[in-house]
Amino acid sequence: MNKTVSQKLKSLPQKPGVYVFKDAKGLVLYVGKAVKLKNRVSSYFKKTGGDNRGPRIQLMISQIKDLDYTVCDNELESLILENNFIKQLKPKYNVMLQDDKNYLFLKINIKDEIPTIGYERKILDKSARYFGPYTSSVAIKDTLRLVRKIFPYCANAKVSQKPCFYYHIGKCPGVCFGKITLEEYRNNYIKPIMQFLEGHRSEILKDLQAQMRIFATHKKFEKAAKIRDQIFALNRMLERQKLVYPKKIDQDVFSIFQDRVTCINLFIIREGKMIQKENFILENTKQLSPAEILENFLPRYYLEASNWPKKILLPVEIDFEPLRGVRSDDRTTKQSYDRSPRAFGARDGHIKIVIPTRGTKLQLMKLGEKNAQQYLEAQGDKHLLEEARLLSSLKELQRVLDLPALPGRIEAYDISNIQGTNPVGSMIVFDFARPKKSDYRKFKIKRRTVSAEGLPKADDFAMMREMLDRRFKNGWSRPDLILIDGGKGQLSSAVSVLKQNKLNIPIIGLAKRLEEIFLPAKKHPIMLRDNSIALFLLQRIRDEAHRFAVKYHRQLRSKTSLTSVLDQISGIGEGRKKQLLQKFGSPRLVREASITDLAAIVGKTLAEKIKASL
């Protein structure tokens, strides 16, 4: 243990928090949480016992040269912070969900006048209800289609004079134009939808049957018929769901399969029926036991999961102490979504974990393990097929362009401007046919070309020369192929820069109109067949360069537009403009800011002027 770590260990408090281990270069090795920071962190450096359990931990400890820590108010806050740090920093020794950015949550915007339903990748809105996570966009879209079939819901956020599109096709009850009241919509549509997503489907069925009887008794046969159709659709869906238990049991069943990476299979059982299946792939798990993997995974899963059971079935015993900090009845934190009011697990509020040894529960566990293995193998097969497809596209591109080597690194360039205003350039990089976003670069064009009338004039050729000249003055990696978005003119500008810098790099231009490929030494363009995998790759790269350039251009244009408006407001100078952009981060967020937030920076009078002007 070096002096830096030794000194910091002495100052660690006996409070909940998050600790970060770093190596000699300052790179993050591991992020962990603790109920008592001093005890937990010190345990890593004891000569015997503690966390010296295996070669993986020992290797990590040998690399620790520094540590940071953050004190939290309670265990749940430390778990939230740990989860955020792991996602942001991607530490070398932490168990990490593969592609967790792709997980989706179904969101109900309760605060809207008409509650809207959609999906998002992050839980951000404190006032909304979230359901998930879903590991597949197909699964969440199928769920939304099923929900709309059983419970028609509105697409609008506010009541107006006109019905929404879905009303015309019989998929909205008409709340959008006042056919039914907002209270009726919330009670008879949104509330059952939330019950449905939580898995309480038999309760919904009873409520619908009761409503149908009431409408029939009062001779409101049209409304009774609509509810009858809902009951029929719900019953058909329930019949298709696999019955696991004859009793109404709520369980989450986790199974695990370990290979090069680990796959965890989850069966979600509500009211005795399997309502959902998810698979999670975890990395950095090679030398960990199933118990250690689950101890890392479960608290982070239940931190974001909306649907909590009364029991969890696991294949092995684990230390479930960390899960006690994720109880659903803990509302003392700033957690950004509403949890179920039921305490998680047993009557004392603790999680109830069952390790099956026989019967249906053990069969479920084994079935889940088989599912996890098959899912992992399928993902591997998909990955191999994708790699083969990308390699074939690069080989075909090498052949049709007669390149000396496989074009592993392809750089593409595009210009975006409107009549010379806010001109920008983009450089995007594909590394063996995959986007390498860490190497993307954007250029604010410095030169200005002016017309005879003194107005800005677009000169894409000059802009392209400037961008490439600036690019090749940097010591970035040398490309195997350069792709210019444009025809002969743009290509000639780029070639002149290469000659000026004495560079011999293959370069082509791809024109949009006919998808012609122009080469410097050839008079006529190359035309590839429409189904060419090489052409698909070039189009994808060209379109990505265009997207990246347009995005940057819009950002600058929006900033310029806002600045020009602010310039017209008396009392707003350069200092104030800079403060506003630093505080809110973007022009759009300045426009969306409340008067209260603006007043905190520029005062109430100026804040009111800004809101009136934007």
Helix content: 40-55%
First-last Cα distance: 57 Å
Biggest pleated sheet? 7 strands, mixed
Proportion of beta-strand residues: 15-25%
CATH architecture of the largest domain: 2-Layer Sandwich
How many individual helices? 18
Question: What is the oligomer described by this structure?
Answer: single chain
| Radius of gyration of CA atoms, rounded to a whole number | 30 Å
Class per helix and strand makeup:
alpha+beta
Mean pLDDT: 82
Per DSSP E runs of 2 or more residues, the count of β-strands stands at 20
List the uncertain runs: 328-349, 450-456
How many individual domains? 5
Q: Could you state the CATH homologous superfamily of the largest domain?
A: UvrC, RNAse H endonuclease domain
